[in-house]
Each structure stands twice: as structure tokens, then as C-alpha cells.
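## retry 2 of 3
previous attempt timed out at serialization; input unchanged, resubmitting
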Amino acid sequence: MSKHKHHIIPVYHCKELGIDPDFDENIVEVDRLDHARIHWGYKCDDLEPLFEYITPAQWIIDLIPRGDNRDVGAAVLTAKGELDEIDMSSENNPMYKHGKLINARNNLKIKAAYDKEYRQTPGYKDHEQSPERKVYKSKWGKANSAKKKAEGQGEGTLEAFLK
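## retry succeeded, writing output
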């Protein structure tokens, strides 16, 4: 089984603290499923899965965020659905805030703001106007038009969607 590089203090928290996450005392190699269990343990305020591999210095333990839903995503992705105890529903979902899941409209507003900023970056116009990009957009547009036409005509097979 391949080993995973686990940051004892998660990368997201190191960024918040303004420290480099790749310092020697912050890294331990663990099995994939144990890596998922460690992150799930962080979310559930249980450091036992980590202690099966290493007992870090107290100052590192003090910097480990516990109960943070951002560790759920790491646990779910790393476990690949192989651990029943990892559950990403309702309050375990990182997008769950104040008793509900954050709505998609807020996410669309964030994406729109990001896209607007991205379009202003140097090189964006050159990329959009490159011959390769024009060919890609043309092919994608033709395929999308054919798909929409097939949907509108109510074809009885999936062939139109597989083109």
C-alpha cells in the first residue's frame, strides 16, 4: 500500500497562520485509509488515529484545528468511499453553515466575481484569441448545438448525447 504525506497541521490552517506547511515536524507518512481516518478524527476532535503513527510536540498538537468541517473533504476524497464511518451529509458537509447548506446562488456569485477578475489578467485576451482556442470553441459549439437540437427533437436514443 502506498504511503500518503500527511500534514499534521493541515495546509489550510498553516496558510491561515502564515507558516510554511512543509516543515519537517509537520509531515508524517501514513497509509491512505489511515490518512482519511486522521482527517475525520480532526473533524470529530479525536487525535487517536494520528497518535497511532506519531505523537507530535505539544505546540504542534495545540495548532491542530479540531471540529473544522474543512477536514471532511480531505477525509472523503482520501477514503474513496471505503470507510463507512465517514459521512458528508448535512452538518458534516463543508458547505453547511448556520443550519443549512450554502445555496448555489452564492457560489455562482463567487464564481462570477472570480471570472471577472480572471478576464482582466495579463494574457487572457491572447489566450482567448489564439487559433487553438478558436478551433476548440468552434468544435465545442457545433457539438453543443447538435446536442441541443437532438434534445429539442426528442430523439428516442442516447446516440445524440454520445457524439
